[in-house]
Each structure stands twice: as C-alpha cells, then as structure tokens.
Amino acid sequence: MHSLGILLSGRGSNFVAIANSIDAGRIPDARISVVISNRADAPGIATARQRGLNALVIPSKGKAREEHDREVVAALKQHKVDLVCLAGYMRLLSPWFVQQFPQRILNIHPSLLPAFPGLEAQEQAFAYGVKISGCTVHFVDEELDHGAIIVQKAVAVLDTDDEHTLAARILEQEHIAYTEAINVVLQGKFNVVGRRLVTTP
After folding, report:
1. What are 84-110's pLDDT values in tens digits?
2. How much is the mean pLDDT over the chain?
3. Beta bridge partners of 85
4. Structure confidence by residue, pLDDT tens digits, 44-84
C-alpha cells in the first residue's frame, strides 16, 4: 500500500480529485496518509477533515523556508509518506526538501510546460493568444515548474473563451492528468533519460 502526502494552500480541488480516484479504485493500492497546509484557513484542510483524513496545519508565516520545510518533511516521514503530491501549494520547496524525496514529489501546473511557468498561467496563455493550452504533471526538482514531465493534457482555446472559462476546462483535465501521473509513478514502469520520462513495459 502506497502512502500519499498532499500539500495544499487553498481549496485543493486536485486533492479532492485524487481522493475520489483512490476511493473509486482508479489509483489502486494507495491511501492518503496526511494532508498538510501552510495556511490554517485553507478550505482543503476542512475538506480533508470532513473525509476523515489526517490534516495538519504547519504555518509558514514568519519562518525561514528551510525551517518550515524541515517541519513539513518531519510530518511526512512520521506518516511514512512515499509520494508527495502538491495540490495548489503556494510555496517553493527548498533544494533540501526535494532531496528528501527524489523523484517522489509531483506537481501539477495549468499550462503546457515549458510555456507559461509561475503564477496565473491560464491568464498568461490567454493574453499571449495561444490556440492550445493545457496542463502538465511533472516531478519537482530544485527549479520552478521544471522537473521531468510525466503527463500532459491539451485544451483548445476557443474564440469564445475568457481566462475563467479556459481555466475551468483546464482544471477538468488537471483532475484526470493527476490520477494518470500518480499511477505511472507508483507502478514504477518508467525511466527518466535526460529530461524525458520514458515508460517501460
């Protein structure tokens, strides 16, 4: 049984999608061991508690990045987490944190990386006038929105779209993509060659 740790700072809609996929058997042999937020007011923490999951608030305000990261990693290790999933976690992880879970931290980003990294990716894509956007699930490394790509989903940008309708359609694909990516990683049938993730039979 694989133990997942979820890190979130807001409502955690991708966390809910992961939890629903586990409950429905779409992610076999996995459970969410702990949900951690750096913000006490994150709606995702209340959702986790309603679902009967371990939910912790480890405040980041006023703490040095690595000091906070050490507290989070200690909690993840206490709950024997073997895969960390970022679900709207609004903090950059320190290199030390990343080194504690090599190729075991996933993030989802609402663009087809390497296009439009960072914040407000959907707004960036819309303003740039791209015809295709989407989402990317990738390993987390020491750089922002940079690690090897596991799954991408393309979403057409319609002439009738604004950034809100585009973001909503991308979010639907995020929920599908995250489940697929978690299964790829948990099954272990892949190699990372340079930047490329290659699945193996």
Report:
1. 999 999 999 999 999 999 999 999 999
2. 95
3. 6, 106
4. 999 999 999 999 999 999 999 999 999 999 999 999 999 99
* Residues 6 or more apart whose Cβ sits within 8 Å of residue 149: 113, 136, 137, 138, 195, 197
pTM (two decimals): 0.95
State the Cα–Cα distance between residues 47 and 25, nearest whole angstrom.
Answer: 20
Distance between CA atoms of residues 26 and 24, nearest Å: 6
Q: Which of 2, 68, 109, 138 is catalytic?
A: 109
Closest CA to 36 of 99, 67, 78, 64: 78
Q: What is the CATH number of the domain that holds 88?
A: 3.40.50.170
Domain assignment of residue 129, given as a range: 107-201
Handedness of CA 162, 159, 14, 59 (dihedral sign): negative
- The verdict on 132 and 45 lying in the same domain is no
| 68 assigned to active site | no
Q: Out of 101, 125, 143, pick the residue that ends a domain.
A: 101
The answer on pLDDT for 198 being more than 80 is: yes
Same domain, 64 and 125: no
The residue behind tokens 């992880």 is 93
CA–CA distance, 165 with 174 (Å, rounded to integer): 14
- Strand extents, DSSP E, 93-148: 105-109, 132-139
Residues 82 and 126 in one domain: no
